[in-house]
Amino acid sequence: MTVARTVDIRRYRCPMTWVRVKLALEAIEPGEVLEVLLSGEEPARNIPRSAVDEGHEVLGSDEGPEGTRLWLRKRS
Question: Domain residue spans in the chain?
Answer without folding.
Answer: 3-73
